[in-house]
Amino acid sequence: MTDKSPGDTRQSPVRALPAHPNLDHLRKEAKRRLKDLRQSAPGALLAEAQRDVARDYGFTSWRRLVALLRPIAANTPELPYDWGWDLARMTAEAHARGDGSAVESAYRALIARNPAGLAELEANFALFLLTRPDGRAEARAIFRRLLRMPTATILALYATFAQAAGMVDLQGREEIYRRALAMGDNLLAAHHYAAFLWHERGNPSEALRFARIAAEGDTPHPLAQAIYQGIYATMAWRNGDAVTAETWFRLARTRSKGDVYATLAFAHMLTATGRESEGLKLAAEVATHPRLADLGPLLSSWFTAAVNFLRYAHGDAAQQDAALLALEDAPVPAQAASDTLDLWRTVETAMANGHPAPQRLIALAQSLTGQRTPSGA
Q1: 240 burial class (0-12, 13-18, 19+ CB within 10 angstroms)?
Q2: pLDDT in tens, 6-45
Q3: Mapped to the 3 state alphabet, what secondary structure does 9-38 carry?
Q4: Helices (H) and strands (E) in the chain, counts
Q5: Of 308, 309, 313, 322, nearest to 356 (Cα)?
Q6: Residue 185: how many CB atoms within 10 A of its CB?
Q7: Cβ-contact 115, 139 below 8 angstroms
Q8: Considering the entire predicted model, what is its pTM?
Q9: Residue 136 contacts residue 145 (beta carbons within 8 Å)
């Protein structure tokens, strides 16, 4: 859970974390702060200096900041379960072809292996079965069985299922999320509820509160924690708080560089805030990311296009020419990714910097977002 108290109304932090945050950097900074404090208060303690440093970065305690930068144990698996990437690889091409039977077969094969996290895998399978012509009855049967001994994770997934199956309305779905959260700290439940508040309720302040709970949560799995942190950073950026966003993007990258979504969102934020060189460097990392192929042909082509869009918006003349050629040679279907990226801010910044072809830039943004205007109107 977050250390922030209900009455804490402080605004965005004074500073974002440095490019490569680590515990040694923070400890040295706290010692320098203590030296400064003792000039006016000789009895000042190191704990006071540490608290002040933490608050500079938007945290209410030194303990919480240090916990988020703790070293990762050797040989720690990136994700808590062994079926996530397998499922992605097995179903990516089938999804792209629209071959639901192949996706279903992939799910059933994984379930037969009885992997760790089987209940969560089955819950996701039930969600998939809702899309199949004759899958609704089996999907409901799966959740009836899982709900005999419900966990917070199962309830969080059931909230989505129940609404998709027409069993509850928005209010009913929210009540299920609250039941899940009442069972105790659960990062997935907090994350799902944050997304619900952001997308369905249009309540960014509450969405950010629960997204931060997930981001600050303690999970030993680097990529799982990085995903929660990257999503919180993206929400903060979309809500206009670039300092908080930068801090959490950097925290996410200290956990794992496996989250291609967060890396691309951070790249766009950096270029939109005047750090084109660093942003383009991250974009290049996305373009060669080893997990990109696991997203499937459709999504991987969209990410490649988003990288080329960034190069066209902020690269030098040679990069712009190559990026435009790639975008024209490999058009992709419109993907409404405005919650991952804000391509329109990229357009705005590039035009302010004197982009040579603003109308072409706007047309590309429209193609990649499916939006005719920044508001989608």
Answers
A1: exposed
A2: 334 344 447 999 988 989 999 999 999 999 999 999 999 9
A3: CCCCCCCCCCCCCCHHHHHHHHHHHHHHHH
A4: 19, 0
A5: 313
A6: 13
A7: no
A8: 0.90
A9: no
